[in-house]
Structures are given as structure tokens and as C-alpha cells.
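hey so i finally got around to running the thing on that chain from the lab meeting. sorry it took forever, my laptop kept dying and i had to restart like 3 times. anyway pasting the input first so we r on the same page abt which one it is
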Amino acid sequence: MINNPFAMPKEVRELAERNIEQAQAAFGQFSDAMSQVMIMWTVSVRSDPPYTT
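ok and heres what got predicted. didnt touch it at all, straight out
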């Protein structure tokens, strides 16, 4: 049997998969939070009277 130089142990592959899942979840939470911030910001900007001197 020929050894594959690119083969990874099963444990390393599982760890990498879990890390990717966690990163995707964190990015999703960040994206949701930024969407909420943008909604609140646009509502706030629309409700404030324009600045005049």
C-alpha cells in the first residue's frame, strides 16, 4: 500500500470540521448583529431632524 503524503488522521479532520462549523456559526451571529445595527441606525437617522446651524 502506498502512503498518501496528503492524508490526515481522522481526529485532525474532525477537529478541522468542528472549527469550520464554529467559524460559520460565529460569522452568522456577527452578520445578524450587524444587520440589526444597520436597521437601528437607518431608523435613527430617519427619525432625527436634519442638523442646522
